[in-house]
Amino acid sequence: MSVMDSATYSGALIGESLRPDATVQGIPLTATRIFRAALGDAKAGQPQFWTVIEFEVAADSAAGLAEVLSGVISPDGGWYCDFHSAEQVFVVFGGRIFRYPRGDREARAAAEAYGRSAGVPDAQLDWPD
Question: Phi/psi at 6 (nearest 5 deg)?
Fold first, then answer.
């Protein structure tokens, strides 16, 4: 098993980003912290308070998690979920997945451009890279 195969991905999912009646299941996750904070952008149509679910997922489940999230994150309201390992980044929107090596500026720019087109405010295009 390579180092990348044994890597853990970490990220944060915003509870309010999920479509009504959506369920995230079938992927083993470890919730590392859950909290609420005033992070929303009213101009983007987002609620003021968000429920943030910080998590970890094993590398062998990361692509599956991205698939599940792309089906449950609302395409409306400028929502996405990002998670990363030491080597890779996933940025998942409703119906769209970006996966790229950390530090790949072109790939990040493509994900940011898509995010803007989906209504994500610039200040929220702040995932770690």
Answer: -95, 5
